[in-house]
Amino acid sequence: MSLTRTFNAVFGSGDRFDVLLVQKFRLGRIIAGLTAGAALGLAGCLTQTLARNRLATPELLGVNDGATAAVLLSTTLTGTFGAWWAGPVGALVAVLVVTTVSGGLGQRGYRVLVVGLAMSALASAVTQVVLSRRSLNSASSLYVWTSGSLNGRGYSVAVPVLIGLAVLVPLALVAARQLNVLRFDDSTASSLGVAPGRVRLMCLLLAVGLAGLAVGICGPVGFVALASPVIAGRLAGPLRVPVLGSMLTGAVLIVLADTVGRIVFDGVEVPVGIVTTVLGGPFLLWVLLGRSAAARV
Asked: Domain 36-296 maps to which CATH number in 3.90.180.10, 3.50.40.10, 3.90.1170.20, 1.10.3470.10?
């Protein structure tokens, strides 16, 4: 379809088949990807700022794997797949365990990462146990989702995340100025009139809710929460926390990765999570090399 036909179909004009193809089969999936990417980008921005570490993303803190395990457990208990509400519940349980064992996010960023990796391994083991007890056909479809997939997703699963964004984004914007202060140590933040513990708890809960909602839609899509704040920070500069920029970057990354997964192999659809993982490996290496170069300087 040409660009003109596509835009006409988006607004309901033009050929009836074009309208059906765009609005029924493509637009809902794109909206689901945009909302999930925006939620992951904002969650990554919050966790990286709180831990003062660009590697402190929801997937490395065990949040994504905890949400994934909770969704699969709810599938086993209810007999139906698609309980998006289980994602935030599992994410909250995972982050409570991580922060309790590591002693909080404050000055112990490295401990949070280590405990988060252990939590991810535990949640992944739970996921594998759940999959092993399913029938072959059911386990195959669920396994694709655990890799991160937008296949079959549309307006119905995007609505909860849109509602969550409408509630949580204004709160994140309110906390953005205080997040700037949290880049310094706790004593400096307290001297500037900011309560570090209260701000950290609020932003952590926001990040957990956003990441859990995103996992409930498209599964544990990796590296989007890592890459979005880094890219947005490069574009916005070092003087502010890129809250809105991280959301927009995450939304674009998810949709682009999903498009690449659909068209790169003729007749075969690659899940969006696999695409982001393949592309995110070199990006993670670039981030680590950049940190090493900065440390040497």
From this structure: 1.10.3470.10
